[in-house]
Predict the structure.
Amino acid sequence: MPKIHPTAIVDPMVELADDVQVGAFCIIRGLVKIGAGTIVQDRTHIQGDTVIGKNCNLGPMAMVGLDPQHMRYKGERTRLVIGDGVVIREMASVTRAYLSGPEDCTRVGDRCYMMSYSHIGHDSRVGNDVIISSSVLLAGHCTVGDRVFIGGGAGIHQFCRIGRLAIIAGNESISRDVPPFAAARYGGLKAYNAIGCRRAGITQQAIHAIRAAFFCIHHNRSVANVVAAIREQVCETPEVRELLEFLTHTKRGIHPSVHFRRLIDDE
C-alpha cells in the first residue's frame, strides 16, 4: 500500500503504485497516475490529467500538472507526462498542455533534473537526461533535446528549440533556436559543447566534424550560407547530418554567433 501522510489530501481518482510515498500537506487531485518508487515530498501539489513515472522525486513544494498559464485556457482536459527517474526540486513547476488534441501534452523525459524555482511551460517537450538549473524559465511550446544543460536564470522564449547536447550559460536570454552540440554564452553561440560531446561518447572524428561545422556557423551570417558551407566543407557524419536537419527546419532562426554579435555591437 502507498505510504500517505495523514495530513495529505489525495483524490479517490488518483492512482498510486503500491510503494509510492506522499508527504505531509501534499494535495493530489484529478486523473493523476504515479509510478512505483516515486516520492512526493511535503506540500507538493499535483493535479489534472498527469502521469508520473517510476522512481521520481518531487518537491518539497513542487507544483506539477497545474493548469497551463495561457490567457485562452478555458478548463479543457489537457495532459502532462513525466518519465522515470525525474527529480523536480523545491518550488519548481511544470504545467499541463494548453492544447487538448490526442497527441498534445507537456512532456518531460527520463532522468531529468529540475532545480529549485525552475519552470517548464505548457506544451513543451523536454528530452531525456536534461538538467534545468535553478530559476530557469522555459516558456510554452519549447523543445529541448536529450542531454541539454541549461544554466541558472536562463530564459527560453516560447516555440524555441534547443538541440541535443547543447549547453546554455546562466542568465542567457534565448529567443531563437540553439543548434545541437552548441555552447551559448555572451548573447550568442560561443563554440561547440566540447566536454559534453566527449562525455556522450562521440568519436574523435565526429567531434572534429562538429568543430568544423561550427567554424562555418561563425563565418557565415545567414542560415542558408551556413548550410551550404557545411555541406561543401565538412565531412558528413551522423552528427553533422543531425545539425543540418536542425538548421534546415528552423522557424525562429538560429541563435547568432558571438562573432557577429560583436560586429553588430561595434557598429
